[in-house]
Write a structure and sequence with these properties.
By secondary structure, the chain is mainly alpha-helical. 67% of the residues lie in helices and 3% in strands. It has eleven helices and two strands; from the N terminus they run ααααββααααααα. Strands 1-2 form a two-stranded antiparallel sheet. α6 runs antiparallel to α9 and α10 packs antiparallel against α11. It is elongated. It starts with 6 loop residues before the first helix and ends in an 8-residue tail after the last helix.
């Protein structure tokens, strides 16, 4: 839990916020991991030279951030807590809720990260991991027959990329790719981009993924990177086209843009 502030802006924080940041630094300095019980309230009062109310407010701030957890009763206290990926994704998603992300925004990130992820994983995945990717692909092996199936298949195809990211040993890369996949799924559902079946998006996406698994199994680093680069470019083009078609479809008659 690294400090979230710098010396330049720490003076702008309230006393409880300053203490919360100091506690985070203290935890890092001591190497305390999830589940470690923090020192008592009296010890923290003495260490930080702050009133009981300030210490308690600092702990509430850390609890709101998901970095500590309080338990009452025998064996209770305040414990270091690890923020789950689900919660981190939800909190970051809330930040972007009013940012009005576009298809272009999402694919700018995907084009930069996902081909390198594929290249890095080529030849390193177990047969069980490759089989798991192939299992996801069975969920959209046939074209969708209804808008509801189109929606479920699109989300499942994004799950393929999220699963591939999960196999990375880089936690930051893993989180960023999974997060962008989730954001694209949210955009697809909230803007009903699935409401008009797109056979080309389905068939080309499935084809790219099948070729990617083959390259990963063969340890073809260059091929894996090239396949996913082409996949991202093609998916970006088709998703933009889908968005344009649906936008025009729902414009009021006679509307000029």
């Amino acid at each position: 839990m690294p400090p979230a502030t710098t010396p330049e802006n720490s003076e702008r924080l309230s006393r409880p916020q300053q203490v919360a940041e100091a506690i985070k630094s203290w935890v890092m300095a001591n190497g305390w991991g999830p589940g470690h019980r923090l020192p008592s309230e009296l010890e923290m009062i003495a260490r930080f030279g702050m009133a009981k109310g300030t210490i308690r407010e600092a702990i509430r701030i850390l609890e709101a951030q998901g970095l500590v957890k309080s338990r009452t009763g025998p064996g209770g206290g305040v414990f270091v807590h690890q923020v789950s990926e689900v919660r981190a994704t939800a909190l970051l998603g809330n930040y972007f809720y009013f940012q009005h992300l576009t298809i272009d925004d999402i694919y700018q990130i995907r084009k930069a990260l996902e081909p390198e992820l594929a290249a890095n994983l080529a030849g390193k995945l177990t047969e069980a991991q490759l089989a798991a990717l192939e299992d996801v692909m069975t969920r959209y092996a046939e074209p969708a027959r209804t808008p509801e199936e189109e929606r479920e298949q699109h989300i499942a195809s994004l799950r393929f990329h999220a699963l591939l990211a999960e196999m990375s040993g880089n936690p930051l890369l893993r989180f960023l790719i999974r997060f962008t996949a989730n954001m694209l799924a949210d955009i697809t559902v909230s803007r009903r981009l699935y409401s008009q079946p797109n056979r080309e998006l389905w068939s080309t996406g499935l084809g790219y993924q099948a070729r990617l698994v083959t390259a990963l199994r063969a340890g073809d680093t260059t091929g894996a990177r090239a396949i996913l680069t082409d996949h991202m470019q093609n998916a970006h083009r088709l998703m933009k086209l889908q968005e344009t078609v649906l936008t025009q479809r729902f414009l009021p008659e006679g509307k000029i843009i």
